[in-house]
Amino acid sequence: MLEGKTALVTGSTSGIGLGIALALAGSGAHVMLNGLGDADGALDRAGRAAQAGGRGARVRYHGADMSRPAEIEDMVRSCEREFGALDILVNNAGIQHVANVEDFPPERWDAIIAINLSSAFHAMRLALPGMKHRGWGRVVNIASAHGLVASAGKSAYVAAKHGLVGLTKAAALECAASGVTVNAICPGWVLTPLVQQQVDARAARDGVDDAEAKRRLLAEKQPSLRFTTPEQLAELALFLCSSAADNVLGVAWGVDGGWTAQ
């Protein structure tokens, strides 16, 4: 489906980002990975996905610090040099910190805004001109249910994800007649390493085991009582990259087990 296209997926050495990168590589797209996790392991898995897809896709890695605009620019330009273009941009990089506003460390606020929101802006401003010039492109921003509703203790994350949804809508309008689409996916609970940290904290706080901590976490927000999987989100990302989604613009697509329906 995506043979000959090129993709950059930020925060893709684990979790949601890696799941999307694997799906893109398996569909024939050349993929540049990025992230702070196990780069060699991610490259190996993505390479195997590309080989299984049988379309000759190549995978590479760039270790840009997503809080640094100059490194983001180097990553985008490296992708263009390596693969000849950047057709699909998936902004997934993110970090989290939980504290009430009055207790929130200012440096953590700045870091979350930089990585969860500003990095997407910088990658988009660099990638969109080429996409518009070629008359085709896809930007998929991985926002969150917290881009649509709030939770206490997560002010920076909620602010960043609400901002990412707004950025998605504004950019989609600017690109509406260009052949480039910009959309957001808003997952609820997905069992990524970031969420597992919250599960571990709850287990320690409540004195319960891992399974019960997960049940309690889900029961508070997600009526389905099931985690969404990275593979499910990857399938949605592939749809947004397909011709079936040519006229899907500025959508904040909830995948949250009923969280935001309440």
Report on the structure:
- The chain is α/β, with parallel strands linked by helices and 262 residues long.
- 49% of the residues lie in helices and 13% in strands.
- The model has no long low-confidence stretch (mean pLDDT 97).
- It folds into 2 domains: 6-188 and 228-253, NAD(P)-binding Rossmann-like Domain (Rossmann fold); 191-227, no CATH class.
Supply the key terms:
Rossmann fold, seven-stranded parallel sheet, alpha/beta, 8 helices, 13% strand, 262 residues
Order of helices and strands: EHEHEHEHEHEHHHE
In DSSP terms (H or I, runs of 4 or more residues), the helix count works out at: 8
Secondary structure: number of strands? 7
Radius of gyration: 18 Å
Helix and strand content put the structural class at: alpha/beta
Provide the domain count: 2
Give a short summary of the structure.
With 262 residues, the chain is an alpha/beta fold. The chain has helices spanning 15-26, 39-53, 69-83, 106-134, 155-174, 193-206, 210-221, 230-240, and strands at 6-9, 30-33, 59-61, 88-91, 137-142, 180-187, 252-255. It has eight helices and seven strands.
